[in-house]
Amino acid sequence: MHVRLGLFAIYLSAYLGFVILNAYWPQTMELRIAWGINLAVIYGTSLILSAILLAIIFLFHRADDDDMEGDL
Amino acid sequence: MIYEASWLTVFIFGLFVALVLGISFYLGSRARSSSGYYAAHGQVHWFVNGVAFAGDYLSAASFLGICGMIAFFGYDGFLYSIGYLAGWIVALFVIAEPLKKLGKYTLADALDQRFHSQQIKMTAAISTLVVSVFYLIPQMVGAGALIKPLLGLEHWQGVILVGAVVTTIVITAGMISTTWVQFIKGALLVLFCALMTCGILYRGLETRPPVGQEQRVTILQQADGSRRVLINGIQQGHGENQAELPPAGRVIALPNQISKTGPLNPIDYLRYFQDAQIEVWRMEKNRIVEKTAEVTAVTTIYRPEIKPGSELLVPGGTPTFQGLRSEDWRAKIDFVSLMLALFAGTASLPHILIRYYTVKNQAAVRKSTVVGIITIGAFYLLTLYLGLGAMSCGALDMTNSNMAAPLLARTFGELPFALISAIAFTTVLGTVCGLILAASGAVVHDLMSNYFKLQLSDEGKVRAGKLAALLVGSISMLLGIIFERMNVTFLVGWAFNIAASANLPALVMVLFWKNTTKQGVAASIFVGLIFSLAWVLCSKEAYQHVYGWDPQTALAPFSQPAIVSIPLAWTVLIVVSKLTSKAKHPASSPAA
């Protein structure tokens, strides 16, 4: 359960950061931060890649642990 | 633009649709009971179900709408990609597994499992119906947009064709065949988009001379009902003394004065694009309307603008998100609200929820959700390249953003065009099937047999479901014709708002809060649904595109209700639950 919440919290804060930056500090999105590419593109694609990564981590973590079965 | 059908495209397209229908008839003949019709007997393999998630989710809106939005306005479409995927994290970590434990076929089953309440059945079924229909509208609009260049049909004919095929699939088959259709389509869509992205990167960027001049499109509606289109005052057509719109989407200049980059890697492609100059088209807000006794002429003006790539690769390009770069607080809240709706809406979409019941157990639910996230995430990464590829392909129709992806495919030849259109068409078919199925499940299972207590035999349930499918299909065809002019992604955003407001608070609280009462759940669904629906219908987009009223007079302060309606529904649930649980156990309070 802790891993589940932890992974969720990591993603949620990254997503929130993206939304807030875009809404209130939109100029930051123009900064070219790596490989000459701007923050908007880097942050956006990283959000998609990290969702895939977190899902895979979760799958492997849960493979040997089935604590959700049985409660509720 | 005028579109002419080619025999090759029609042939491949026909073959594809026939294949899909064949599969669905074959599999449909094996599902006789109602659990087979609505939940595929719970026996679908997790991998197939996972890719079918992608099939369900990557609707016409994802494919046509996002590509079109990026192709016309740049980065803003990608915001939808990010938000649509983010919602799956909620589904995976919060909703999926606990939900699998509760229900049988539908959202109402799951919510009502603890309570056996008539109100919950009723409100949950209605919310499923409303969300399904709202999600169906953009699918139908997308279908019309696809059929136009493919078969040279009018928008309304396309909508009716799709509606008819889909309703046939659902009526003949149900969940098993829908799942297989979704699996095939999800896999093919991601595969072909990957191939097309390779093609875009291999081709690189190339400069073209700008069009430079504004274009006027006039639609003449004669009193006898006939219709003519003029381009800059000249009859539209390919013949002599006829005119056609110039193909749009041109790169005007590349960095270092080169005219062609040659093959690029994914990072270099973005870097070159960022430093290029692109010609984009903006529609004048006000149309010119001239009326005489015989004829009404409506003229729309399209103006070219040359923009640096760096400006197109940051948010704020579309009219919807323009305010992000201003100091207007409403625009900022609107944006935050949309991103919240996308995040919270996915996990509460009825056609996604029913897919949790097609597999055996919670482990299978988890695995298929992860497969779904990988497939869907890969697709959304590609949308950026597909959109930018379309923006620079020199073959777009400036009057219709929903057409960008198929027209991009056409620049690679007639065969890719036929294949991509056929896949996109099955995309629409598949998603619509899932939605109609979810809606018909709500009508028959939740309303007829559980709420009104009609005694239906198992066979009767299936028959009633098919009848409901026919009805829902027809309603959405009609609405698909009315909503033709709206970008389909924007419409889907509304469906997410409504789903998130009506269903998510109830779902999460039923799963995780012991003090939830049946009155709380029913009140929360009811308030969330009515409030978000009313808000959307009072927004400036609805005023402008649907009723044709002045958008300045719209009642809703901003377009996306989620940021108000989700907390509202949540509060209603908590307050009503507190009130009703106290009333039930008055004796227990003094001890505390």
Oligomer: heterodimer
The coarse silhouette of chain B is globular
In DSSP terms (H or I, runs of 4 or more residues), the helix count of chain A works out at 2
Calculate the mean pLDDT score of chain A and round it.
79
Approximate helicity band of chain A: 55-70%
Sequence of secondary-structure elements of chain B: HHHHHHHHHEEEEHEEEHHHHHHHHHHH
What are the low-pLDDT stretches of chain B, counting only 5+ consecutive residues below 50? 586-592
Q: Note the run of SSEs of chain A as H and E.
A: HEEH
Main sheet makeup of chain B: 7 strands, antiparallel
What would your notes on this structure say?
The complex is a heterodimer of chains A (72) and B (592). Chain A is mainly α. Chain A has helices at 2-24, 39-63; strands spanning 32-34, 37-38. Chain A has a two-stranded antiparallel sheet with strand order 1-2. In chain A, helix 1 (2-24) runs antiparallel to helix 2 (39-63). Chain A starts with a helix and ends in a 9-residue tail after the last helix. Chain B has helices at residues 7-28, 34-39, 46-57, 60-73, 76-102, 107-112, 118-151, 155-172, 175-203, 266-274, 309-312, 329-345, 350-353, 362-391, 404-410, 414-451, 458-482, 488-512, 518-537, 540-547, 562-584; strands at 215-222, 227-231, 234-235, 250-253, 277-283, 288-291, 295-308. In chain B, strands 1, 2, 3, 4, 5, 6 and 7 form a seven-stranded antiparallel sheet that branches. In chain B, helix 4 runs parallel beside helix 14 (362-391) and helix 4 packs across helix 18 (488-512). In chain B, 58% of the residues are buried. The chains are: A mainly alpha (72), B alpha+beta (592). Chains A and B meet through helix 1, strand 2 and helix 2 of A and helix 5, helix 10, helix 12 and helix 14 of B.
Protein traits:
heterodimer, A: 72 residues, mainly alpha, two-stranded antiparallel ribbon, 2 helices, 2 strands, 67% helix, B: 592 residues, alpha+beta, seven-stranded antiparallel beta sheet, 7% strand, globular, disordered C terminus
